[in-house]
């Protein structure tokens, strides 16, 4: 029976890993549909290449920093020769968590689209997945440095982030925010007095919608299977994810005035926000969390573009950075017994954990992107940007002209 239970757990987490892995197709098509046609190939190649770099970085470095288990090397630096001796569960757990780590550069990709050089961004991906992301992941999900123990002893509960509102999405969104600032706006995007000069509508609403749907479906693996064991499955997590998704759609539809870009990002906003508290809030609380997240995305995206003049192409700071922060705070509010939650959360711990996540993301991204900008350069030339990343980098368009 013990062997059967272990095998079921391995299958469970493996299916979760596959679902989250497929979400990267969603990131790709969401970006393909949003960017200009001359940058569609670049979006596809970036997401695929980032995934490979993330896998290597997390295998050799990141997973060890977060959990103290170095899969590629022993602690003394010798190459591990007994990988097959590790349990199947340990290996699929790495696979599952690697797909989370790889979401960070996929998030960043949408913010810096249409003007970033290819190889410098891959270098940034390696260091972010190897060092920056796992540093906070280890604090939040493995209790590194005893911070969670301190929060629990001081405030009655540790920082609670069941599926990564802050650990994954908040960190990814704030890294992207810094990357966009360091990179600068697309050429001609703003006038000298700061007004929007060029609007770039989505190049393909069907591709954008396809990306949103893939992400939405995969998210149920992201959230539900974060239990990492069959006995930890909660129908509550699934229903809460569904309710938050619906709330995000409704808010984005009405506040965004039926704009398809807002409508298809609405479910993602709700799902980002519900990650943290999906196991402790009530379905009604999840609906409210989703509604607020959908509204927050629409308003924050517009405000970021018009007033902050931060050229975040897909609005990833609003979607992942701000909605992730809201999700962690909302877990502290709606996870309380007084509001129908299951308890076990403390608002002080939620605030401290959220601030820590943002701080790690901002400092880490500033260091990584700042150094790369100085040493390698981050941007395409003005001429390359005008021609588009597809021709400038990949020498091919998404739809090459047909021979006559």
Give descriptors for this structure:
single chain, 404 residues, mainly alpha, 14 helices
What does this structure look like?
The protein has 404 residues and is mainly alpha-helical. The protein has a single domain, classed as Ammonium transporter AmtB like domains (Ammonium transporter fold, Orthogonal Bundle), CATH 1.10.3430. Helices cover 69% and strands 0% of the residues. Helix 8 (235-255) packs across helix 10. It is globular and about 60 Å long. The model has no long low-confidence stretch (mean pLDDT 92).
Query: What is the CATH topology assignment?
Result: Ammonium transporter fold
**Total number of helices:** 14
Considering the protein shown, what is the CATH homologous superfamily? Ammonium transporter AmtB like domains
Structural class based on helices, strands and sheet pairing: mainly alpha
| Quaternary structure state of the chains depicted | single chain
Strand content: under 5%
- Poorly predicted ranges: none
Biggest β-sheet description? none
What's the helix and strand layout?
Blueprint: H1 2-34, H2 40-67, H3 88-111, H4 118-142, H5 147-155, H6 165-183, H7 205-224, H8 235-255, H9 260-274, H10 283-308, H11 316-334, H12 347-375, H13 382-387, H14 389-394
Helix pairs in contact: 1-2, 1-3, 1-7, 2-3, 2-4, 3-4, 3-6, 4-6, 4-12, 6-11, 6-12, 7-8, 7-9, 8-9, 8-10, 9-10, 9-11, 10-11, 11-12
Please sum up the structure shown.
This protein has 404 residues and is mostly helical. The protein is built from 14 helices and no strands. It has one domain: Orthogonal Bundle (Ammonium transporter fold), CATH 1.10.3430.10.
């Amino acid at each position: 029976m013990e062997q059967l239970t272990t095998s079921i757990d391995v299958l469970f987490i493996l299916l979760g890993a596959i679902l989250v892995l497929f979400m990267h197709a969603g990131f790709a098509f969401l970006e393909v549909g949003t960017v200009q046609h001359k940058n569609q190939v670049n979006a596809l190649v970036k997401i695929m290449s980032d995934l490979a770099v993330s896998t290597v970085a997390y295998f050799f470095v990141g997973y060890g920093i977060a959990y103290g288990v170095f899969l590629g090397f022993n602690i003394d630096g010798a190459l591990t020769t007994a990988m097959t001796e590790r349990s199947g569960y340990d290996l699929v757990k790495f696979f599952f968590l690697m797909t989370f780590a790889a979401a960070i550069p996929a998030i960043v990709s949408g913010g810096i689209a249409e003007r970033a050089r290819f190889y410098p961004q891959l270098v940034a991906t390696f260091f972010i997945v190897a060092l920056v992301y796992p540093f906070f992941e280890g604090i939040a999900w493995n209790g590194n440095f005893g911070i969670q123990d301190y929060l629990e002893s001081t405030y009655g509960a540790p920082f609670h982030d069941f599926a990564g509102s802050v650990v994954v999405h908040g960190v990814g969104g704030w890294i992207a925010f810094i990357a966009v600032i360091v990179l600068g706006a697309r050429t001609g995007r703003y006038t000298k007095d700061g007004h929007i000069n060029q609007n770039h509508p989505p190049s393909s609403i069907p591709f954008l919608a396809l990306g949103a749907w893939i992400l939405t479906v995969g998210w149920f693996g992201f959230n539900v299977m974060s239990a990492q064991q069959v006995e930890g499955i909660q129908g509550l997590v699934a229903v809460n994810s569904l309710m938050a998704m619906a709330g995000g759609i409704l808010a984005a539809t009405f506040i965004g005035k039926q704009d398809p870009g807002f409508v298809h990002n609405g479910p993602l906003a709700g799902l980002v926000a519900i990650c943290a508290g999906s196991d402790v809030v009530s379905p009604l609380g999840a609906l409210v969390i989703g509604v607020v997240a959908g509204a927050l995305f629409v308003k924050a995206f517009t405000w970021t573009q018009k007033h902050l003049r931060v050229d975040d192409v897909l609005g990833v700071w609003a979607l992942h950075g701000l909605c992730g922060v809201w999700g962690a705070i909302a877990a502290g509010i709606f996870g309380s017994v007084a509001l129908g939650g299951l308890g076990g959360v403390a608002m002080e711990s939620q605030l401290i954990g959220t601030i820590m996540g943002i701080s790690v993301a901002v400092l880490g991204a500033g260091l990584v992107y700042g150094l790369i900008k100085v040493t390698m350069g981050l941007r395409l030339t003005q001429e390359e940007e005008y021609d588009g990343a597809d021709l400038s980098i990949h020498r091919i368009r998404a739809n090459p002209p047909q021979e006559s």
